[in-house]
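hey can u check if this looks right to u? its 263 residues, i copy pasted from the old doc so theres a chance i mangled smth
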Amino acid sequence: MTTSKSSIGTWSQRLLAAIFLGGQAIVHLLRGKIHWRNTREQMAAVGPDSLFIALLTAVFVGAVFTIQVAREFINFGAGNLVGGVLAVALTRELSPVLTAVILAGRVGSAFAAEIGTMRVTEQIDAMLMLKTDPIDYLVIPRLLACFLMLPILTLLSLVTGMLGGLIIATNMYGISDTVFLDSARNLLEIWDICSAMIKACCFGVLIAVIGCSWGLTTTGGAKGVGQSTTTAVVTALLIIFVSNFFLSWVMFQGTGGAFQPGI
């Protein structure tokens, strides 16, 4: 019981440190302290290096969602809505959340492991001795990379997910591609795409800040690095789901929307 309370207390302290680090990063960004070479390197690691797994996941998510929805909609005589329902689901929730989950596991863990290793091997202390701010050199490039790349990955995942759903709808359920795409175009609104981009930007910042903060607060050698990496991923996933609830509540609360009678 004491160990559990101690773990929760340590986790809470590190979470507060992450919030403080995020504030520091914003202040440094407003002052224009950006290390562009590091930023480009991190953008390549976050974007192109994560593209394949993000798109592969999106194809199968779109295909599975269509399998689950198409049969029921056809039974109710609403087969012409399958494409629109998939488009709305992918845009509002599935694409931004699942892409963020992939990046939290792949990129957030890498941030925590890299910076944690630098911390336990005293490389960060050496940077401070050389008057190099770790926030400028390590945190901000990773934050900008996630902030810029996650919306792009989300948009590509949306298109790929729609492609996966289209393949299933046309080949398994006999829904024509014209009906499928017209339904998506009729039900999808500009705000839905904007909301996906807003969510992706928020998730990107959260993943970067949590990964970097857990790395900077690592102690205990190699074992500490492993623990920090695992805890950073779990925390990032938790924060993504919690923040997704509040973002969705703010963006889509109330009645009305794309699903209107007569469509």
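The mean pLDDT is 90.
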